Amino acid sequence: xxxxxxxxxxxxxxxxxxxxxxxxxxxxxxxxxxxxxxxxxxxxxxxxxxxxxxxxxxxxxxxxxxxxxxxxxxxxxxxxxxxxxxxxxxxxxxxxxxxxxxxxxxxxxxxxxxxxxxxxxxxxxxxxxxxxxxxxxxxxxxxxxxxxxxxxxxxxxxxxxxxxxxxxxxxxxxxxxxxxxxxxxxxxxxxxxxxxxxxxxxxxxxxxxxxxxxxxxxxxxxxxxxxxxxxxxxxxxxxxxxxxxxxxxxxxxxxxxxxxxxxxxxxxxxxxxxxxxxxxxxxxxxxxxxxxxxxxxxxxxxxxxxxxxxxxxxxxxxxxxxxxxxxxxxxxxxxxxxxxxxxxxxxxxxxxxxxxxxxxxxxxxxxxxxxxxxxxxxxxxxxxxxxxxxxxxxxxxxxxxxxxxxxxxxxxxxxxxxxxxxxxxxxxxxxxxxxxxxxxxxxxxxxxxxxxxxxxxxxxxxxxxxxxxxxxxxxxxxxxxxxxxxxxxxxxxxxxxxxxxxxxxxxxxxxxxxxxxxxxxxxxxxxxxxxxxxxxxxxxxxxxxxxxxxxxxxxxxxxxxxxxxxxxxxxx
Length: 572
Fold this sequence. Notes:
The chain is α+β, with helices and mostly antiparallel strands. 33% of the residues lie in helices and 18% in strands. It is built from 14 helices and 19 strands. It has helices at residues 3-20, 36-40, 88-100, 125-147, 172-198, 250-261, 334-337, 346-355, 359-372, 410-427, 453-466, 480-483, 518-523, 550-571, and strands spanning 51-53, 59-60, 65-66, 68-73, 77-83, 105-106, 112-118, 211-219, 239-243, 276-283, 286-293, 307-310, 377-382, 388-393, 399-403, 440-444, 470-475, 490-497, 501-506. The strands form five sheets. It has a six-stranded mixed sheet with strand order 12-16-17-9-18-19. Strands 1-4-5-7-6 form a five-stranded antiparallel sheet. A hairpin with a 4-residue loop joins β2 (59-60) and β3 (65-66). The chain is elongated. Residues 153-162 and 198-205 have low confidence and may be disordered.
């Protein structure tokens, strides 16, 4: 058994113990230095010959180990140690502790106390560790609680120095920070292993995106108490759909994801007391895992410039003369959290590109706007008064009317504002590339707002055709957008109970939803309809139609009428 296997075995065991135990001190010490050994998988202090597991801060600078630890030495056995070589104060303190414990012997210098717990055998490691937790550790914890002031140390906080002389209990924030480092490396290794084993299995057209959401783990955020870890989300999922009833927690999940991927100053007010957001993502082949515990730490990797979050209200834009300036209520995520969030003004974007005589920029923006409304606009021009005019068309491309953007339908205005805003924000850091090359993650709450079912179905394809390298994460209330779901789309279903709070479940893997019609989708776990019949339907006297298409129903009625007429004439 190689030494890194011991580290992994113990780390996995203690992680489960930490998450489930009722002990007051349920934290364990993890190597603080991110050195070469740590990168190789040495999660605890030690070297190639031993693993030192401690449950307290403090180390002996002469012995280069923790002060108190459970030690696994493959060549010798499994031991418990108390070390006080570098401090007279700690020597006196630990001497009294060792004398209170059973089975410890002291060395000649009377500064190292040890006890052999057993021989080294792989299947005995966790059993002996469990016994140590139940016996020695519980006694030591209580001893420290009642006597720590006697050690006369200046403080008891964990420092980045691996073998600080300070001694005491580990704090929860210190522990979560260090645990997250280990889990991030493990997660990245699992991801690399997954890529190696699946790199030839991706279907045609399932190209990996440059930036994707990979995992979601949220605790104590608003209505989310805890949930099953969502992980290994596909690298080629252009769309992630969030489903669930009104008031169930879809927006809360979207906001939590945003807070785990960005660290704007305004985010702080949205982090609730006791919350823990752990969001994993992959960017250009490199894996990241952000852990936010009530506040942001120095290990946080933000994607501020590659992320935009939209709430359900997407009709309010900045004034046309505002020059689309950045303001408090127009940042990249403000709209997701607030009803007064402003989108960039599309007319201003078009006007500026027109005035600058940047024909390519103007045409690109115009083409994107025309594409998002599925060619129901055929031209955008500027009047002699500097007003942008939009030419509407019917399904066949025949010109209808020409007017300003405010005269367009609410649905079209929302789509145009959305695309214009995305291009405006991403162009700030992508000045020399076309919008088809933009990379990022975009959240849209209530995707289908103000849209006819025909456009609800088309919208995913339309957005992905304009921004093919962007991942979209959206909440929906209608089954229709799923009819337009692209290959490898993900569905996360939200539920809420008084006992469990908000829970999240990935359900796209439960069935082939791309082969289902709206009725089946509505009655599936995605939407949970128990009854899709009209409220006026009378099962005692009416026959419900089960054909798939309206024309089939017309044909059925016509045929039935002819049969009835024929039978009636025959009877006469």
